[in-house]
Amino acid sequence: MHVISVTGRTAATPEAIWRLWADVPNRTRWDDALERITLEGRFRSGAAGVVKLRGQPERRFEVVQCVPPQAYTDRFFLPLGAKMDWAHIISAVDGERAVTFDVSVTGPTSPILAPVLRRILRRELPSTVHKLIALADRTGAHRPST
Prior knowledge:
The radius of gyration is 15 Å and the shape is globular. A hairpin with a 5-residue loop joins β5 and β6 (83-93). By secondary structure, it is an alpha+beta fold. The chain has helices at residues 14-22, 110-139; strands spanning 2-10, 34-40, 48-53, 58-67, 71-77, 83-93, 96-106.
């Protein structure tokens, strides 16, 4: 069940954005909801880790798809068999890059979880995307607009 999709634009290269995504322990620099996040091994499909959101218990997650420097999806394992997938996509739009976070939830409790997650993420996710893009713009190489 789809929860939310948020897109922002940047002049930073896909590689600059990708470096921020792949630097998993330092995602707290641009995601205020994270208390900490760890990954076992390299950032690639099949890698797993633990995430601790502020005010929440630790949760396991897995990188289920990884296509550098274009897209990746990670899956977070929630109580009662629910799974929350976060697709992260970089695409070219009008000489810039569009950076999209697309969130969905599956499992038996998804009809209950989706509206709750949507309310929370409507407040929090736009600023997270904005902070990621601002950091990529400050630290990453830029391609000239076409």
